[in-house]
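sorry for the late reply, my laptop died twice this morning and i had to redo everyting from scratch. anyway the thing you sent over, i finally got around to it. pasting the sequence first so we're on the same page, its 555 residues, then the predicted structure underneath. double check i copied it right bc i was rushing
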Amino acid sequence: MIRPDAAYPIVSGDRPSLRKERLFVRLSTRPRVPRSAPLLTAAGLLATALPLLSANPAAAAPADDYRPQKPSWHRCDAGQPATYECATIKVPLDYRRPEGRRIDLSISRIKSQNPAKRHGVMLMNPGGPGGTGLDLPLMMEESMPKEVRERYDLIGFDPRGVGRSSPITCGLTDSEQNFDRAYRPETYAADVAWARTVADKCREKAGDVLPYITTRNTARDMDAIRAALGERTVSYVGYSYGTYLGAVYSQMFPRRTDRFVLDSGVDPERAWRGMIQVWASEAEPAFRRWAQWTAERDGEYHLGTTADAVSKTFWDLVARADRDPIELEGQKLTGDQIRSARGLFFTPATAAPLVSALKAAAEGGPRPPGPSAAELMKALRPAAPSPDTGTAVFWSVVCGDTDAWPRDPEQYRRDAVKDKQRYPLYGDMASTIKPCAFWQRPLEAVTPMRTRANVLTVQNEWDSQTPLVSGQGLHRSLKGSRMVLALGGEGHGVYLADPASCANAPVNAYLTSGRLPAGDVTCRTAPAPAGRGAAPQPQRPLPLPLPFPAVPQRF
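ok and here's the structure:
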């Protein structure tokens, strides 16, 4: 039996106006959309309901009679340790109607082996949106130091719509999953058609589910897990998109929020178009840093003896590839495809050998020593995700969390033209048309960050996916938080992702003791080794295959 005090709380965090909010939920008369209803009709009903739901976020609180069932644990797989257990619980698709349709939520755990030191449960999320997290307990157990590990039951879960948690699909092709689309006047109409097609396909395949694949509902699922486990609070480690999920949970359920580590932060003020655009603005200083670093090693890379010379070499290659694609590893690369690798420049030791190999290929000379051409191609053009579940959930979240996306394709055109001038590496790709322009209106307003959150944020100085300004924005938004900043740190993901990071010690101390640092912590991490010996990686090598989304279009 789940303790009465562990029953699923209301969204507002146990506010005293419970009776009024329950009444609001019961009297809500928004028409229910049958699964078989025509898609346009469903979209119209959702749009009609938006003003009512946005006006009172408490209307999305789960009704009083919802109680998550106790999990029935079993060994996850015969090939996995017996201590690694899995279960499936049912949660409402729509928490405002808990008696209605339910979906599966797949969870896992590895229990603490030291009951005397056990503090509670720790949930985890690897990012995405659309990343799976069921295997995280196995991975984190091996990476965590003993003094941290023995204090928690490690709890993994596949977020709704992902993996084993009632996965969704939009039926997208590999090409349709790619949104690194350069702005060109002659192709813009085709890009608008692509964005509309993605939105239409998602409505056709999963239109009855998409409105409920949001960060707020995933936060409710986290709290359903807490309640199902019979815990009063949860601790949490979230990476990248997982930082925003953790921040939203801390606002919706502040009394349930225990020790939270938010690693590689998403700025709530930028959710979500601004988070894609920040890839462009922050790629520029990373590119300048790379050019200077590479100029200091001209004897090795032969790209120029000054930062300006290195920059000119790169842009000459881009222009050449736009006129006549450069062939590398049997594939021809355009200048736009080369620019889309903007994340590589956050790690100079990765980007320099790649650009050097491109230069040699363009000039018809021998390939310089270093990583193989296959490794270079993998870094430049990662394999498209297949199937499209991760992409479907990505768009469901980034389009469904907020109604701030422009609806006029001409607005995207104007922004793309402007930002191509301001941020030449990636500005047009970041600001051009996205499927959210044609997405159905969200059911809920974006989550305001108003409640004090005594959590720890962690950030590398040179992070390509959630750049430093984004991590600083998350820290600024969460009043009461502390920040650990690893100066010189490169790559996406800090805690346990880089065993040499100076940030690991303060995070371990917090998770062990529960005491936040007295103030923000700034330390220095040695950069990744330079030289041609290392294969190009979008991030520093991990001690374990932590399932950070491998696609450069993810958080």
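Residues 1-64, 531-545 have pLDDT under 50 and may be disordered.
thats about all i looked at so far, will dig more tmrw
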